[in-house]
Amino acid sequence: MKKKQSKKKTQSKKKKNYQENTAFANLDKPSNIETKPNRSSSGIPKYVADRMARRIFFTAGIPTILGMSVFVVSYIVVTRNIAEIPPSSTIAISALFFLLGLAGLSFGILSASWDKEPGSFFGIENIPMNIQRAKAAFKPATQNFEDKS
Q1: What residues make up the domain containing 134?
Q2: Is the pTM of the predicted complex or chain greater than 0.90?
Q3: 109 in Cβ contact with 137 (< 8 Å)
């Protein structure tokens, strides 16, 4: 009586039958399918994203760097016996800078103008409009459609 071969052995035999030269033969041939990039109107335009990134760098990046540098400055002051700084005040000051950075992150996103030309320096006038855009983005698609009609 013949023993049944396991599935692994039969599958490995099938894999060996393919030759390497036929497996990769079609890689060099150009395909006939043209792919067009899908442009959606719901995305953030590049010039707006760049404007947001600049604002975020200044309003969130600088306070975050200051929040990290508080630890370094505190360490230097304490180790050189310039002053005695309690660890709780170091943590509190650092936390304030990190919270300022978090607020700056929100401000940087919400204050960016969506117009082609840049808005004002602070962009405070754009915040209510951008909050409305953010709220509309989280609504279901059917509600957005009904609001436009």
Answers
A1: 54-142
A2: no
A3: no
* Residue at 133: amino acid letter: R
What percent of the chain is modeled with pLDDT above 70?
66
Model confidence pLDDT, tens digit, residues 68-118: 999 999 999 999 989 999 999 999 999 999 999 999 999 988 888 888 887
Sign of CA dihedral 53, 57, 60, 65: positive
* 11 vs 6: CA distance, rounded Å: 9
In a domain, 105, yes or no: yes
**CA-to-CA distance for 41 and 90, rounded, in angstroms?**
47
Containing 98, the helix (H) or strand (E) segment is: helix 87-110
Q: What is the distance between the alpha carbons of residues 112 and 57, in angstroms, rounded to a whole number?
A: 13
